[in-house]
Amino acid sequence: MSSRVRTLVVESWEDFQAIARDPAYRSWAFRGQADARWPMYSSLSRHVRTYGLHRDSWREQEQRILRIFRRKAHHFLEHVPDRADDFEWLALMQHHGAPTRLLDFTWSPYVAAFFALERATVDAVVWAIFPLAFSRHRTVRVRGKTVRPNEMGPWRQGNYERYFLAGERAFVVVGEPPNMNQRLIAQSGTFAVPSLLDEPIEDILSDYPDPERLIVKIVLRTEKIRDQAMWEMYNMNITHATLFPDLDGLARSLAYELEFHWAYDPRTMARFHDEPEA
User: Fold this and answer.
1) How far apart are CA 247 and CA 106, in angstroms?
2) Which long-range contacts (CB under 8 A, 24 or more apart) does 6-11 make?
3) Tens of pLDDT along 89-131?
4) Which of 53, 68, 141, 149 is deepest in the core (most CB within 10 A)?
5) Alpha-carbon distance 168 to 178, whole Å?
6) Residue 125 confidence (pLDDT)
7) Which of 164, 179, 173, 27 is nearest to 95 (CA)?
8) DSSP class of residue 81?
9) In the prediction, which pLDDT does 3 show?
């Protein structure tokens, strides 16, 4: 990871809450990951790299799986996106678990903390990025090439193939398709879309002017803060059942429920209140 990415280390839940409430992080987007060592690669990037697809095949194979999904998914959909709306099709693929170049972010630091800590066993991370500084109405020079993010976003017809599949310039945009699904709404979600598959988002943004204003890595000391953080978020009703408002979300939330009980601590069996006298 580039040394130009600013890193904050959080030792307590109170310290994280202070960051979340800080006006300096208003309008930032957040992403939680269970291991602070993991770079921010998309699921598509991880797949083509992990399973050894030749670099020369990446563009054609990415186009191919989008084409397959677009041809067959209509059998299962109540609303079929416009065929030319690549961004909405990619968001739909992402929603259902297909490998895409989209990375899930949220406008809520607490939702990001939930995803970071829920199954973490080592130091976790919440990545924070500031889209207004690099993804909206601005021309910037990145690695010697001009980038106009608002004009190059995948929400404009033809841009996905022109700028993202081509992979000729290093840039990242952030946004949502016009039709948002229930999960995206429940999670206050948005997407970061990198133009390159072979570099994590933090490396691309670190080559922008003033990267300290664009991206922050917030390392969470899981061992110190997870118990309190998960209890606090449970009380805030941040669970899989609320973030994934469907049967799958309910089922996933039951692992979370294993850790909690209204009357006692399942780890220590210490009761929260004395039993009432008979």
Assistant:
1) 22
2) 6/211, 6/212, 6/215, 6/216, 6/217, 7/216, 7/217, 7/218, 7/219, 8/216, 8/217, 8/218, 8/219, 9/219, 9/221, 10/218, 10/219, 10/220, 10/221, 10/225, 11/221, 11/224, 11/225
3) 999 999 999 999 999 999 999 999 999 999 999 999 999 999 9
4) 149
5) 27
6) 98
7) 179
8) P
9) 59
> pTM for this one?
0.91
Strand ranges of the sheet holding 172-175, from the earlier edge strand across to the other edge: 6-10, 215-220, 124-129, 29-33, 103-106, 189-194, 172-175
Secondary structure of residue 232 in the 3-state scheme: helix
Quick check: 158 pLDDT over 80?
yes
| Structure token digits, residue 184 | 């995206």
Q: Which one has a higher pLDDT value, 227 or 252?
A: 227
- The CA distances from residue 10 to 60, 85, 219, in Å, are 42, 40, 6
Give the integer Cα–Cα distance in Å for 83 and 173.
22
